[in-house]
Amino acid sequence: MSKEILGRTTRIDLPRLGFLGIAAKIDTGAYYCSLHCHHIEVRNIDGKNLLFFTLLDPTHPEYKDKEIKFKNFETKQIRNSFGDTEERFSIRTAIRLHGRRIKTWVTLTDRGSMTYPMLIGRRILKNKFLVDVSLNELKASGD
Known about the structure:
143 residues, Cathepsin D, subunit A, domain 1, two-stranded parallel ribbon, globular
């Protein structure tokens, strides 16, 4: 299968989460994808741990104030851009990127201070896409 060329930014869909056209930054230095969320918490309901979160935050124009629930989730140790290790919740979901539907792990974190609510890591890019940093599909300033 041929590899498609991506720019340093793109738009992605998260069909299972009900979000389409989310602005994303390609980050080959990150291993996993990460998504801007808030109110991330585990609740024990009927003896089972469930992960609840809200995508984006009230300051984001695409914010829907919709709580999302996941039964299957993990915690992962992630090294952030400052070199610090932090524990994050991670969900396995589908991302639609340039017409391809790809199941992958996405970590949930507060990216409220960043320009792009979604970061696309190299794990999802491997063997599928090439990145040309001279291309900028969104024509927005980077973070």
